[in-house]
Amino acid sequence: MSIPSTSIKLLPSSLIQRAAPRIRSILSSYTNGGGENLNQAEIEDALSPYFHPRPEEAASTMSVTSKPLISSREFSEWQTPYMPLLTDRQLELTLVEIRRRQRHYRRNAKQISSSSTTLSTKRDAAIFVPLCTVNGVPSILFTRRSTNLSSHASQISFPGGYFDECLDTTKNTDETYCNVLGNVEDRLANTALRELEEELCFDLHRIRKSSSLSKELPFLSVLGQTQPVPSMTGNRVTPIVGQFNYDLSHFSTRDFKCLFPGNPDELDWIFTVPISDLLSNESSEPLKKWGDQDLASTKGKYEYWGPVFPVPKDDRKNDGDRIWGLTASVLRPLLRKVFEPVFSQELENGKGRHNIMSRL
After folding, report:
1. Largest alpha-carbon pair distance within the chain?
2. Any bridge partners for residue 283, and if so which?
3. Which residues pair with 303 in a beta bridge?
4. Which of 8, 15, 50, 192 is found 20 to 30 A from 326 (Cα to Cα)?
């Protein structure tokens, strides 16, 4: 699917341009050791999901020294020199749950067939966290996956997918694509950008011809990345933070739909949410994925809660639509440690607020 041959109104976003250097600085500070200056309480306050000891067991839990469930070598594979999104405890429990599920799948595979069913090989994946302004309001773009997909159907997510060595290594990347987006060296950044373009179905060459896109200012920029987080299948998912450098229209408008037609095989809704609405409307819910752990050292001692964010009211919104799971776990620390401080002045002045959530 391609952009219709109509004029698209695009103006550079001065707010995004002013914010970009500080966002880059915050994200890069972790690679330079800046993140180590935060104390554990500050880190845990920003990260998600939340793990709460049950009140009646908190005292006994605090007095017991738990034996590590994951080896230091396995931990080091996830703790890259970028901004962390999970605390050590959260990462440990996630890896333990992945291991438990893998044992379960192996047992089932043996019962079904000794040769036909095997666990999939771990793969690298990347998601793109798309920062933007919508009519001057700092916002984030989300997608809802198609109902026809075999995994995570109808879930709210960030654009992304698996690394493809043929498409995503720098040496094989088309020069025009790299020049338009900037000099992207990281292979996973290439993955995130490719998936973003494939899912949203925007055509950079068509956009340049049918809009007032500046030759000096690219349509997209990469600002940085965070540490990878594990999916429940054990794959490494690396969030790439980037921005649209031009101000976007509201997602319900014709201009927005012309700009991002969307791939119907992968998505059935593309929308934006103001950062102020995400910050002020966060809630939480129990995470059921750890509800039946069979490990004595953790069973029954904790209640596990994850962050949840609402989506704006729209004709395409379905009952039960919400931002949760891995998407919300990636979103919350970025909101608290990056976007909120960067856009604090706009949020305080009320310029970063829409009335979208008032209609929920």
Report:
1. 67
2. 308
3. 52
4. 15
What are 251's two structure tokens?
A: 């997602």
CA distances from 337 to 51, 73, 101 (A): 19, 28, 32
69, β-bridge pairs: none
Strand, coil or helix: 125: strand
Tell me the CA end-to-end span of the chain in Å, nearest whole number. Answer: 32
Q: Where are the domains of the chain?
A: 11-30+46-110+121-359
Q: What is the pTM of this model?
A: 0.83
Sign of CA dihedral 30, 159, 257, 307: negative
H-type alpha helices, the chain: 14-29, 40-46, 55-63, 72-76, 88-112, 165-168, 175-181, 187-200, 204-210, 254-259, 275-280, 325-334, 340-342, 344-348
pLDDT in tens, 122-146: 789 999 999 999 999 999 999 998 8
* Cβ burial, residue 123 (10 Å; 0-12/13-18/19+): middle
* DSSP β-bridge partners for residue 125: 162, 237
CA dihedral defined by 81, 87, 91, 92, rounded to 10 degrees? 120
